[in-house]
Design goal:
alpha/beta; 322 residues; 26% strand
Length: 322
């Protein structure tokens, strides 16, 4: 099969290569998925580039060298393991599987679910890390309820576009922060108010919010908290990842601050679960969420697709097709 193989750490165009490799074997509790589409999230770009440098030993243990990257996938079941009971060959699915940038990938039975009836493979492939992060941040950690004021920075990005829609589904009054070129798009996906950060700084305005989901990290924690209501919560999900400790130091600072400041939510890491994947399927079929897909690339142009996302200004999701 064709697959994109990572040779070492570095810029995507230098280290990602299209190769012919063996199809992955499946265990008794796994399924083999014929990949139709895979989407890219920002974490893919950090792992490929090996950032921050201090994480490279862990990336190596995870098989970063000579591995097939990618996790967010949609396709058709090709074969099932001996203990699999939920699927059979021919079923259309989406979910999480290591090695998604390939024509076939093996996945745990519990980490794929049936594709939404109203979604094609490209749309379904976006319901991975970004959508899961938005769902878990807004519903589980942020505990958003109807009538609350929610502000989302990076509202035009992968996590942000889903977060806006999920907050609206929960009945919140939603403000999205984005650049000038994305104002209309963010408004079109349901934001009640849109702030163009090139024209206005939300941290110095009068409006206060019950939850801020910060996907960018452009402001200090202290300045961002100024925009919170008295009992508001700040969920920090974004900061530039670079150098030896860029990102890790921000994570630790956020964790430490949360112990002493009641307005600071603890940092979190999203993990795929069957229940949350099923919830995303239900929201998609109820037309409560829909992806914003900026670009699609064929498998042979995966390096270019990852490079685009790595620049940090992608609109919505970028998808690879096989």
């Amino acid at each position: 099969m064709r697959a994109v193989v990572q040779s070492t750490f570095g810029p995507p165009r230098d280290v990602l290569h299209l190769r012919e490799i063996e199809r992955p074997a499946i265990k008794d509790d796994q399924v083999l998925v014929r990949v139709e589409a895979a989407s890219i999230h920002i974490g893919d770009t950090y792992a490929i580039r090996g950032l921050p440098y201090s994480m490279r030993p862990l990336f190596r243990l995870m098989g970063a060298k000579n591995r097939v990257p990618g996790t967010d996938v949609a396709g058709t079941i090709e074969a099932v393991g001996a203990n699999v009971t939920r699927f059979e060959p021919g079923d259309a699915v989406f979910g999480s599987a290591n090695g998604a940038f390939a024509e076939y990938v093996s996945a745990s039975e519990d980490l794929v679910v049936p594709r939404p009836a109203n979604f094609d493979a490209q749309q379904a492939s976006t319901l991975g890390v970004s959508a899961l992060t938005a769902l878990q941040a807004i519903r589980e950690h942020g505990k958003v309820s109807a009538g609350q004021r929610v502000l989302i920075t990076g509202a035009s990005g992968g996590v942000g576009t889903f977060a806006v829609q999920i907050a609206k589904w929960l009945g919140a009054d939603v403000t999205g922060v984005c650049s000038t070129r994305n104002v209309d798009m963010v408004r079109s996906i349901g934001a009640d108010h849109v702030i163009d950060y090139t024209e206005e700084d939300f941290t110095t305005a009068d409006r206060r919010y019950d939850l801020i989901l910060d996907n960018v990290g452009a402001h200090s924690l202290t300045d961002t908290r100024k925009a919170l209501a008295e009992k508001g919560v700040l969920m920090s999900n974004g900061t530039p990842i670079s150098g030896w400790f860029g990102g890790i130091s921000f994570f630790l600072k956020t964790l430490a601050t949360s112990v002493f400041v009641k307005q600071q939510g603890r940092p979190f890491i999203s993990w795929p679960t069957n229940d949350d994947l099923e919830m995303l399927k239900e929201l998609a079929e109820a037309e409560k969420i829909a992806p914003v897909i900026e670009h699609t690339f064929p498998l042979e142009r995966t390096a270019s697709a990852v490079s685009h996302v790595a620049q940090g200004h992608a609109k919505g999701k970028t998808v690879i097709t096989t």
